[in-house]
Amino acid sequence: MERTLAIVKPDAVERRLAGQIIQRIEDAGFEIRAMRRIHLSKRQAEGFYAVHRGRPFFPSLTDFMASGPTVVLVLEAPDAISKWRTLMGATDPAKAEAGTLRKEFAQSIERNATHGSDAPETAAVEIGYFFAGIDLI
Ligand code: CMP
Asked: Which end of the chain is more exposed for a tag (fewer CB within 10 A), N or C?
């Protein structure tokens, strides 16, 4: 079993797509181990995306992530990290495959509906950013 962090981003929450996205997560066979709604501050968004500090899109990305509430989830499944990335589709919705969440729900590379961890080490850090150990027993 593996765990990954998933975020339903502000663009999707604002358009009331969180329910549909969570349904797709359950239909795909993930177990939702933890979930919360949080409206990130700019500082909290900058902390979450610290690895991207210095990239040209960092200021705009963190403004966007602080622009409204998100839903953050810990998903569990065999190969959860790659399984969730496959369900999301490519970061850029223009390159996402048919049937993926980003193809269906994303509006642009920034307003791309969902986030997922990219490796076991980042999943551990990202899960710990939002959830305490006691939330995941
Ligand atoms: P995410 O998977 O959450 O990780 C970093 C985010 O930066 C990414 O999704 C995109 O929403 C956003 N982003 C904006 N512009 C770019 C870009 N040119 N390349 C990669 N990510 C970008």
From this structure: C
